[in-house]
Amino acid sequence: MDIHALTPALAVSAQILPEQVETLRQAGFCSIICNRPDGEAGDQPLFADIERTARALGMSAHYLPAESGKVTDEQGAAFGALLDRLPKPVLAYCRSGMRSTTMWALSQADRLPLPQIVDTARKAGFNMQGVVRRIANHGRTPLDVAEAEHAVLIIGGGAAGIATAASLLARAPELDIAIVDPADVHYYQPGWTLVGGGVFDAARTAHTMASVIPRGVKWIKAAVAAFEPERNAVILDGCRVVRYGHLVVCPGLKLDWHAIEGLSDTLGSNGVTSNYLYHLAPYTWQLVRTLRAGQAIFTQPPAPIKCAGAPQKAMYLSADHWKRGGLLEKVRVDFCSAAPALFGVPDYVPALMEYVNAYGIGLHLGHTLTAVDGPARRATFTRLNADGGKETVTRAFDLLHVVPPQVAPDFVRVSPLADAAGWIDVDPATLRHRQWANIHALGDAINTTNAKTAAAARKQAPVVAHNVLAALGKRAGVARYDGYGACPLTVERGKIVLAEFNYGGKLAPSFPSWLIDGTRPSRLAWLLKERILPPLYWRGMLKGREWLAKPTLADA
Prior knowledge:
Radius of gyration: 24 Å
CATH class of the largest domain: Alpha Beta
Structural class: alpha/beta
Helix content: 25-40%
Number of strands: 28
Mean pLDDT: 95
Oligomer: single chain
Number of domains: 3
Distance between the termini: 52 Å
CATH superfamily of the largest domain: FAD/NAD(P)-binding domain
Strand content: 15-25%
């Protein structure tokens, strides 16, 4: 743990883990304050996990979340009041410690001289100059002072952001590029299904962020608070300002765990798990291995979600394990999906239904998970009836695999870049923002109708790279994205239904049917998923090598 002392009574840190709470107690901490909202990242334990552990050790634990870069004066006051009354010393944490330090700085604005606040934070490793300017400017961030300016600024260091930076540099090695992302680790999230199925070790899916950012690209290790597109500026946490010539936005999705009543209180315990969290995918495999009989339920929320086939993948791999162990007759498997169909592209449904029937899976479409009672092992669903009405259904479980509802990040949904539904508003072919010509976007947070998968980002990145350079006068023509997405559906250990399709559900196979027929289960597709795609991701896509991803160009 990287702990920074601000005062004898308060220290701040980056995200802590439940297993680290006992160490904090041994170090003398009496109270914990969480300033990070649940669901910001796939490697983030929920506050309920921290709280359970802390209370068992006799420590106080309090939840005072704030959006990154958007700490309010009211939250600063609440933090100060909490700090006054809690047993001390107190550890406050968020993603990096910046939000917690900002809350402390705001809480001390009328107690300490501003230079003392700045100096105290600086000694702890945090730059509060932007916060002080905000205090002096009566709560508003002044935009006339920029920390930096770059020709191309990329928001997000996930698959889409790193691939776009690499594709830009492959075409224009001299280009001034910066990536904004607060995370220390970059994850190969498509591998988490295989972690939950006992095929991959979780560590195989994680590399340091520093190791994947292309050489020559500046890394701004910070979170975004707001966009000011009319001023070509982005406000970061700590009230810092960065300007740009062209902006590329690809921040991923927010996992909305609190949208399901009771879920955050029990996730990671009582047989409730999710492959959508890095630290819980191994728990999925633990539950699958130890379940000898009983009820297993796998859920899927309303669209859109990242990799809409992932909820089924977890189910099929689990059922295959129980089948191989002679336990499938003793384990009842149900798939409760909010979708009206098993899969959004009809051509792949027959092959999937063969596995649903072979495993004896109970298929319940139009079922949305709304509440979980972990200790009682009960899950509540809202079911759509044939007449359009709704009713509540409660099911018992021994294992519950949950996929949460997913939305664009908060700083996107409330920004000028978003459409009425909260997604970044882009042209579906060029991926350029509909209002601002110097802004492009790709990945999971855009309002296009393609599947939200890493395969889609692999195709989108070269399109955005070309079109940004065309806007800079460094390339001719316009690149167009056709909506390609891919979903390798792991229907059993050793076989995959390789779904590939464009906008409108039109099939878009990458291989001839005699090699891989995507509408049928294939061993070769499994080898592609297990052996070829991971190194292709790390050494190809993230390095600007556009195998089967060269963009289609048209006249401007």
